[in-house]
């Protein structure tokens, strides 16, 4: 990682006023990547586009970090029937607030990326699913879509070619689980957001039983960068195994919270102290949740030398997730925090699988007991045990996402949890 | 309740929503939204209207309406204040804001004031974590970086029928740069 990362000029949300206006976007090289491809479809055959994106190694920004081009290559050959791209703008993982920046400040970059993805996979319809609470951003984004239609980047015979791609914007109505990809498909079909059993995978049977690829908004916004500058250029940005620019959402006890764009692989402590202005009130850092509420918490003393990319975070004992960094100061009560996280997952469990429905309920209940000073030592082992029985036994990964914070917060702040339990034993005695 | 129906204009909007998808059923969430904007809630009669309009089973619409938290299954206050108390907001005083509102309005989270003006709810992360604590007014605009004073002003304004405006939360690094450039 180059030392000069702080002077990095943002690419996903560059410092250009009114970039959300299509003319401004066009005036700054916007839609050039799409033109480049459509004007030379021999050079930029569908396979070549998929390969270029695969080579660039854009790791999914929705949380799982899967290579986008590789995912695209799973789509079966066209059979003449409909094929879909479902863009995930559900953004509901606590600590995550970055896709809305793209909708507000650079929507056309995402639209262009989605169009390139649709071209590469021979897809005719793009759905953009946005969380219902983001209605203000739905409206802003719809305006950008209308403009793109008017300019001929969307719809029939795009830019005079024989390629036709539609884009429909739709939104949810409050349900975290609809961010899980198959739950989002159910919601798009107008149903309760119950995740589907896999296989079949969405590439085989997705929306209305047809081949479908699901990508996060930020993931697709990276695609034009790759086409404009090449896979090599892209993969040289940031960390080797996890390249590219990232929208870091920094929240919690920092002086300057917000979304900041830097390459992957930047030092966690510098992001907190230099970029986000350090801890409020001159206090000390206690802990960090690096990538949304499901990623395991790290103690301050575990952060020395850690950088924001999958390998480094994995070595440290956590994950990159959504790069939504939640910063906690020395006064933070980890029992309270963990109870609130457990409450979230219990509230958001869709209830289909018994281990998840019952397990998330137990985790919350036992943590509430500990929080209220009524816990016993054996409750800590009960929590870990319930977690072990949930993990890997459910239809979707929500149950796992609920277990990881419990396991790691208890293990990494064991003293604090034990002290809370001991106190209650004394109080009773 | 009197016989419910959509106006010609609403039916036209519904046709446009249906056209987004290959099936009418897929428009269920969107048409529930149209209905809720009209009636302020989606009580069972309203759900039935949606089912009839889309020609889908009532049980289907009921299942959808009950799954998603933003649909009001009962009548709420004129203004519904959804206070985020999730992770980042909890860290930044979300519960203090919630309790301040509860005291100020004399109701608890989940309740509506007697005059039907305000409902308060404690909700999960709204995707505004960097602007915590925050709340959302009736499934609409976000009010960020709350203090008790800001809450008081908001309540006064709402009582006078003045809705808060959309607050654009720019990227702080760009703001800093622009400030430096203009100095
Ligand atoms: C419970 C749960 C919630 C999720 N929520 C989101 C979300 O809000 N946004 C998102 O992009 N991905 C979310 N994901 C990940 C998606 O399932 C999927 O991996 C992702 O959208 C794929 O896009 P990507 O490969 O471009 O990251 C969630 C996953 C789970 C298990
Ligand atoms: S793991 Fe939980 S959220 Fe996922 S399908 Fe099962 S019950 Fe639903
Ligand atoms: S935690 Fe409140 S908006 Fe995310």
Automatic annotation (TrEMBL), chain A:
Reactions that this protein is recorded to catalyse: a quinone + NADH + 5 H(+)(in) = a quinol + NAD(+) + 4 H(+)(out)
SUPFAM superfamilies: Nqo1 FMN-binding domain-like, Nqo1 middle domain-like, Nqo1C-terminal domain-like
Cofactor(s) demanded: [4Fe-4S] cluster; FMN
Keywords for the protein's UniProt record, in alphabetical order: 4Fe-4S, Flavoprotein, FMN, Iron, Iron-sulfur, Metal-binding, NAD, Oxidoreductase, Quinone, Translocase
PROSITE patterns in alphabetical order: COMPLEX1_51K_1, COMPLEX1_51K_2
Entry EC no(s): 7.1.1.-
First-tier enzyme category under EC: translocase
Official protein name in the record: NADH-quinone oxidoreductase subunit F
TrEMBL record, chain B:
Cofactor field: [2Fe-2S] cluster
Record bears the keyword Protease: no
Pfam families the record matches: 2Fe-2S_thioredx (PF01257)
The protein's name: NAD(P)H-dependent oxidoreductase subunit E
Keywords: 2Fe-2S, Iron, Iron-sulfur, Metal-binding
Family membership: Belongs to the complex I 24 kDa subunit family.
InterPro entries: NuoE-like, NuoE_dom, NuoE_N, Thioredoxin-like_sf
Organism: Fodinibius halophilus
Cofactor note text: Binds 1 [2Fe-2S] cluster.
Molecular-function annotations in GO: 2 iron, 2 sulfur cluster binding; metal ion binding; NADH dehydrogenase activity
CDD domains: TRX_Fd_NuoE (cd03064)
Tree of life domain: Bacteria
Family annotation (PROSITE patterns): COMPLEX1_24K
SUPFAM superfamilies: Thioredoxin-like
Positions contributing to [2Fe-2S] cluster binding: 84, 89, 125, 129
